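Q: Could you fold this chain for me?
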Amino acid sequence: MTGKIKLLTWPDFPDDFSVWKLNPTGARLETRELAPGVYALLSSIPGVDNAGFVMGDRGVLVIDAHICVPMAKQIQERVREVTDKPILYLVNSNYHGDHTFGNCAFPAETLVVQHRRTAEIVPYFDEEIAFMTPCVGGDTRIFEGVTLRLPDIVFDDYLRLDLGGRVVECHYFGPANTPGDTITYVPEAKAAWTGNMTGGMFGLGLEADAATFLGALTRFVQRLEIETLIPAHRPPAGPELLGDYLVYFSEVTGGVRKAISEGCSLEETLGRVVQSERFSLPAGDPNAAVMTGRHRYNVQRTYLAMAAK
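A: Sure. Below is the predicted structure, expressed as structure tokens.
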């Protein structure tokens, strides 16, 4: 498919950036009740996608469809262990295949919900298969039976979905990890599914820069009252994680802006805007190099965005 949208490919990433490990083989989704009728589905394999579902009097809303048909079916099995009510809606947190490839395995009656920016990119199906393949160790059998399924409902900034006695909100606060990051929020539970927007000790501006990510975070914190965050690839967290993210992206934004104002090159900026102690792992931690690579990626994206203005 051709068009104006430039999708990320693995050659776009620096050598020290680690590929995500998203192969779901052997993963089981464990059901955790967050509040009456509100459930997180947590992967037994760290890093492999979490999901969730919310139940009302009329039916169910599911958050994210996972990366393949068997995992999408497992989500539906977890729902059926709780209720036989119809799955009315399926919300995709972003366009990536680990959130959308399972769409095709849900009933035709289930309405797929996406943000407008997500809906613009999802049709680039072959490109996304290629992007996801290294994330499953090159095992394309994972994608057997996966077909493109487009959204039935597309929203811009806000969508309110009434399940009968329970409302679920879809919010868009701006680009962060992807152009169309969607926050699925249950007000009475103060629980939010954040997709790739949160996860780990600091966020990844995969297709944004630190200043843009910071703006989306600020609007998120200002608008929603949070007790529980359910990231796509990490365990649930409390609202303090958002405070940490605000500090981190403020540090990167300010550091890069100062370096550019002093005439620093990209390489010089990468050497100056290093992780602060608060956002660094001990040198012996096996994830230290991974997080350093992602920090450097954030700095690079931010430098290139600011330098182009």
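A (continued): The first strand starts at residue 29 and ends at 35.
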